[in-house]
Design the sequence.
């Protein structure tokens, strides 16, 4: 089983099977966050700094930074946001943009080994993003979608994961620096979507051996009591072999620590009990 | 994949892969319940009736009836408790005792096809319980333990499951009438216990094809915030292939319905949304 190492200037985080699930804080992302979007359009990075600190305190291991919203020049703003986050916390960053030029500009100022979010199985994405990942010695999230979209079943997802790994290796990126995201889609729209993702995670683990991340919350789109569904799905994903999760850390850390303990990824229940005591003393 | 059918005088419940998880209400069991234990010793079955009704209202599909406690003659009391439960609800019963003579006496008065809880892989248990299951045309829960106790790993659990199935078939019991319980043990005592059970469930499903039940709450024994661990574990068990669960239905039905939906066992999210609306209107 492979390990993916990412780092800030001073800290290293290891993503690996059998280790505690690495939590990537998702909150620096203007999608659905009006206040953050408005601040970013105005070039104000105060919320970026505050969210970086808050997520670190909540137990995030890596901070995702995404500034993509209408009215923002990502090539100009993403490096500034990355610098703001680097100034606020000493955690590794996940540099998140659909624009390769913005990734390039942000990687240029980043100190350490970043996680790039993301490359897909689309030819255009592979050609634009992989050379950047190679040039900056970064790691990269590989999303299992291609020109035809996200496959409905596990088989299609695994096939695209395999293709991304082959292309990454051909571009000179070590296999262990690719973290596969099996892409949760709404179970309310397709009843088989949950098991397709869980089965894909199991197969990527057993057949490809690389690390696996997941942004899980799409699974519950359009359904009531989303937190209940998200929690159940996170537990399933950890049991199936996800080694990192892109999440709202403060909300979901308890269930993920429970899942880690149940998955033999928290020896002597040390992290689980410590987090329980922190919750108790915070009450 | 096999289906196990159990019934009361008027209702049938089908346990099967791909179907909604069947909930076996665990509350009629004096272990750890002082008030119920005292009532049973006094021969008072009012709580049995009340708990049967409450669990049926909470969404139980089958009601477990266990009266085993110090000071109770199970051979005399179990049939009375079974009759009390039959009089209170029209759900199938799970007749639960470690004493074969008590199972015999209770099966004699039961109307329908009961689920007997349980036989183990111990020679003495197989010899005493299987002929009763055959004689009364019941179904039976097979616990994966033998004279050496509960195996630590998945492999040992699957081996005992296989042995129970062979012995059942040799006794004339159809394979589909055996429901395997992979036996959760405390993850606080053995960090590998959670994954051993989940892996055993996956393998019993794929290699043996029979139905799988689980009394999940032992997993969290000795740890704080047990509900968090139990919920995560129930979601994992459903994703792995458990088709029935022995649980406190009122407490855990929401997470199990979420897990069913995510596991493609709740088409159009009908049950999930209906339960959500019931919770809303009860508030």
Sequence:
């Amino acid at each position: 089983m492979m390990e993916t190492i990412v780092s800030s200037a001073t800290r290293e985080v290891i993503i690996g099977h059998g280790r505690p699930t690495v939590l990537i804080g998702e909150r620096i992302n203007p999608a659905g966050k009006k206040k953050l979007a408005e601040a970013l359009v105005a070039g104000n990075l105060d919320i970026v700094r505050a969210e970086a600190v808050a997520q670190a305190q909540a137990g995030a291991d890596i901070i995702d930074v995404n500034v993509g919203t209408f009215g923002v020049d990502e090539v100009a703003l993403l490096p500034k946001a990355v610098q703001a986050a680097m100034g606020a916390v000493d955690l590794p960053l996940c540099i998140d943009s659909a624009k390769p030029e913005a990734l390039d500009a942000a990687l240029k100022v980043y100190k350490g080994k970043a996680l790039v979010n993301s490359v897909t199985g689309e030819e255009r994405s592979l050609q634009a993003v992989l050379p950047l990942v190679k040039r900056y010695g970064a790691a990269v999230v590989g999303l299992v979608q291609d020109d035809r979209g996200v496959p409905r079943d596990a088989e299609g997802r695994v096939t695209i994961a395999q293709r991304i790994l082959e292309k990454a290796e051909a571009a000179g990126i070590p296999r262990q620096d690719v973290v596969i995201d099996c892409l949760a889609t709404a179970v309310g729209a397709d009843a088989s979507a949950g098991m397709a993702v869980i089965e894909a995670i199991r197969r990527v683990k057993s057949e490809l051996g690389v690390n696996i991340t997941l942004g899980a919350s799409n699974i519950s789109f359009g359904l009531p009591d989303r937190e209940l569904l998200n929690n159940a799905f996170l537990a399933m994903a950890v049991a199936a072999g996800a080694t990192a999760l892109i999440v709202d850390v403060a909300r979901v850390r308890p269930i993920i620590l429970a899942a880690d303990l149940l998955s033999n990824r928290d020896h002597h229940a040390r992290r689980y009990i410590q987090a329980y005591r922190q919750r108790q003393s915070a009450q």
Q: What stands out?
A: The mean pLDDT of chain B is 97. The interface with chain A takes residues 187-188, 191-192, 194-195, 198, 219, 223-225, 228-229, 231-233, 235-236, 239-240, 254-255, 258-259, 261-264, 266-269, 272-273, 276 of chain B (CB under 8 Å). The radius of gyration of chain B is 18 Å. Chain B is about 50% helix and 15% strand.
